[in-house]
Structures are given as C-alpha cells and as structure tokens.
Design brief:
Largest sheet: 7 strands, mixed
Number of strands: 31
Strand order of the largest sheet: 6-5-4-3-2-1-22
Distance between the termini: 50 Å
Amino acid sequence: MKVVPLGAGQDVGRSCVLVTLGGKTVMFDCGMHMGYNDERRFPDFNYITTTGDFTSRIDAVVITHFHLDHCGALPHFTEQRGYHGPIYMTPPTKAICPILLEDYRKITVERKGETGFFTSQHIKDCMKKVVPLHLHETVWVDDELELRAYYAGHVLGAAMVYARCGNESVVYTGDYNMTPDRHLGAAWIEKVRPDVVITETTYGTTIRDSKRARERDFLEKVHSCVLRGGKVLIPCFALGRAQELCILIETYWERMGLKVPVYFSAGLTEKANRYYKLFINWTNQKIKESFVDRNPFDFKYIKPWNRDYVDLPGPMVLFATPGMLHIGTSLEVFKKWAPDERNMLIMPGYCVAGTVGAKVLSGMKVVDIDQYTQVNVNIDVQNLSFSAHADAKGIMELIRQASPRNVVLVHGEKSRMTYLKSKIMGEFGCPCYHPANGELLEIETSQDIKALMSDQLFQESWAKEQQRRQELQADGQVAEPITQLPVRGVLLLGDGGKRLPRLLDPSEFDLDQVPVVSGPNDNAPTGGDQQAPAGAIAESPAAMDESGTASDTVVFSTRKVFDEAAVAKRMGLDASADLSHAILAAISELLTIDSEQQVRDSKGADRSQTIEVGSSIKISAQPTDNDSLPALLVSWAWEEEELATQVLVIINRVLG
C-alpha cells in the first residue's frame, strides 16, 4: 500500500492524502491552507501528473467534512485542473460545502480582488459530481473498491471512511471527536482491523481537562469582561463550535438574567438552523428529543450582527466568523477592538500557523495584518480549547477501536506527531509513521483469511486457553481477558466463491490422507490388479469433462472411527449382528429422508457395501484387523464439499 500526503503532512491545513490500495488510488480530502494566499494554499496536484489527466490516475475523491481545510480546493481540482471522476461525501457535507465555498470565493475575489480563482459556476458543476455516502452504507466505486462511512462527531456530517480493495484496507479519519458535546455525539468505528489507520493529530500531545470545567471557565471569563464594560470577541466557524458555544451562552444568559447584547456575525445562521433541522439524525440524543418541542438553534438572546454595531459603546459579545482571524468579520472587528485593554478575545479552537489568530496566541503585541496594516494588541487574549478534535486520549481510543496493523499520522505539528508516534508504538506495538508532504510511504500488507471453525476445534482451543489462564492464576500471575484464541488445526481452503475456508481439528481430518491432485496421465494404473493409493484420485465419471476426457480434480477422504460396543448397544443389536451393515443401512435411510440427492447402495464382489451420494461421495466400512479400530471411510470431490458436510453430520448422528 502507498500513502502520500499532498497536504497535512507534518502540518495542519490543506488536508489531502493519496492512498493506493489493491491497485486503486483514492484521494482523501482536498482542502486549502488558511495561512497562504498564493499557490501554496492548494495541494501540489502536479505530484499526481503534469499532463492534467487526473481522472485516469485517481479512482475516487472522498471528502470527510465541510471545513475549508478539507474541501476548499475541490472546485479548483475538478473544474480548473480537470478531474471528472466520482466524489463521495455525506449528505450534510454535500448540502453545506457549496455554501462555505461560495462564501470563501466572495471574500477572496470580491473583497480581495484576486483573479483566476474558481467561480460560482465551478462550485455548482463540482457538486454535480458528488455521490452521497450514508453512515454504515457500503458503496462500491467499481467492482473492487468499496467505501463505508462511520460517525466522526466534530461537525455536522463529518465522517471517517473505511476503504477496501482486494486484500488491502485503510481507515481515513479526517477530523473527529471522541467526546460527545452539547449537540453532537462521539466518534465511533467498528473493529475493522484495517492495514492502515490514517489519523489526525491536531491535539496529539494534549489531554484536555473536564468539559464542565472548561465551560465554567469560559462563562466566567465572558461574564467578568462584560461586567467591566468590555466587549468579547469569539472567532469561530459558522457551523460546529459556533452552535456549541451559542447553546452554552444562551442557557447561561437565561439562567443569570443578563441583558448584555449577544450577536452572531455569519449570514449563515438561518441556513445553519435549516440544515440542523434537516439532518437532525446527525445530532446527539438530547437535541433530537428537544427538537420535538422547539428548535434548540432558534436562539432567544443571540441576534444577527450589523457592521455598524462595531463602534457602539458599552459591553457586548460577538461570535464572528471565521475562527482563525485570517479574513472576514472576525478580522475586521479584531482590528477595531484589539487596542482596548478592557476587551477580551477568546480563541476556542486551533489556529493554523501564519494566520493572525496564531500570531496573537503566540503573544505578539504588534501584529501585521497585511503589508499596510499593523495593530497594537492590548486586548485580553484567552485560549480556551473548545475544539472538536480528539485529544491524545481520544486518538489512542480510536486506534484501539479500529485495531489497525499500521498507523499513519497527519494533520498535526511534527513535534506533536513525534511524541504521539512513540506512545502508539509503545502501547499497541504496531508500526507508526508521520510522512511529510510529498513523501511516499510504502507499507507492506498481509492477507487475512476468513474461515469457518468447527465446534470441536473451538471447544478444545477454548478449554486449553482456560487451562492456561488457571495455571497463570495459580502461579500468582495476572491473566488478561481472552481477546485472541490460538488454535492448531487443518485449514481447508475455499473456492473464492460462496464456500468459505474451513478450520478443522486434526481428529476431524486424516493428516495421512492429504488431498492429492492428479491429471489424466499422472499416476495412471498400469495393470488390471493395481489400485490407486489411499487419498489419491482414480479416474471416474465424476472426474470426466463433457467430452469424456479425464480432468483434474481434488478428492478428500476421512476416517470416522467408532466404538463397536457403544454403537451396537445404542442400536439394540446383539453380538451376532453385522454391525457395519446395520450402520450403513441406518445412514442410507437417514440420507434418503434428509437429502434431496439420490442415494445408491452397492455391493462389491467381496460382499463389501458402499453408499454413494451425489456424483462423488462414497461411504464404506473399512476392513479391520486385530490391531485397528472399526471405522467408516468417507470420500468426496471438492465440488461437493457442501453436500459432504451434510453427509458427515448424518454419519455423526448414527455413530453418536
């Protein structure tokens, strides 16, 4: 398997990871970098090809959620660079993504005057290529490549994606949150055991304090600022943390009876409420239940923002977009309020390096907004993490849930990745990588074989493991819970179709009679009295093709040993009875009743009896001498393995 980050490799922003598995190539996310305004803001698509033929090289593009650092380059890639293949995203992401892209386009083109940027029509044409990806639904890109989405929390519609092609599989997490909040649930994934998990590491070295303590700290700081007459600026993105913090402020204002005005700047508020109502199933249970009585996103105390309010006297609270102070209303208001020490700036999320938000959080007292503007930062700056990213504990939990063979770290700072890498390798014992942008990572993969284990093998293996645990406890050692069960058996491979491989106990399969393949001229008898050796294949009508020519086949044979006295007693036979004949007669009768196949009895010249079922299954009594136990000899061709399994069940019923 090959993994190449085109963005988010030892960096945050511009998420874009190419994965080649089973001969298919998937692009996970196609984002932009908030810290750049030149060609570096988009991933380096020339790495894929310089001829522009992206469609033949990429089988699918998957977008995990609507944040611009994960989808911002999509119209550029599809409409300006020429990718025309399928794009997969969840329905909420498909609904919200074009709104944020258009909002970003307006700021970039209409306010900043940039040229050569994607247009509104490009966004519409891009969205026409999108195929919806629903939670837990398996979508086949083609006959070999499958995708499945899992709930990621983070924002409305965010998903982790499992992809599999042939024997190789990968989980790409995108951004996720393992802690439920006031409007979204926690991320979760099945134990899919992929070859690789590619996980974000935004907060890879952070273990957050309790959510309740953070909320209390946030509300106390906001309240203290407005009490002293200051203004509170809270930069956030229009969907996600904005709703989370608005719910928090709304309930606090109502409980405290505060009259200080609270505003929300984004014109997306009404649309956001519409989408939360439309996709209510993506929220947590509390929101779903309260939605029956009222829309919890119809806020009583939070009003729309007007640009004229920025110079009004007196305290106020403003939620302004975007969240990193790099463009838009939040940056405009910051320039006005930053010089006043009575005011407060609360940064609730992560800021990419190079943005004004990152500069302010680093402690800079004079910030260059652009080449013409400087701002004195006297405002009280607070960094309270309400980010919907998993912390170190959450990342470890996600890896534990998925149980991968390898881990690849992206979407984080290199120093944090290095620390987390050592922790992952120490705890899980699996290889861990953190490639840089443009660095090709090749990972060796192995093949799993799913097999049906026989009851006998499972019971014996379980008993041995229980005995081992008891011995450990007797020696005063701690016996870990049984999560893996070592077995020692015989593996019968399937045919690649409906018949799965089977794992049998050695006693259920005669190891001395391993199936042999012979062709029409191999091991052919040369004399009339010569017979094929045990376990080999003689030419028979079952091994003929339609032309009558002998063809290659595989025949299995096994011995079913039984206790003569016990079987005779159970069948009510005396010592003079022919036990072998009685057993074969009982088997023949049950097969006639239970099987739809024709059952034939035949006798040889030596009066030996054989039961034939189907075209290849034969059951006969094995001759015994003084040193051997009585047994039945059962043989069957590979093509009738399923019928043979039914026959063996009936034989076991007769023999007890």
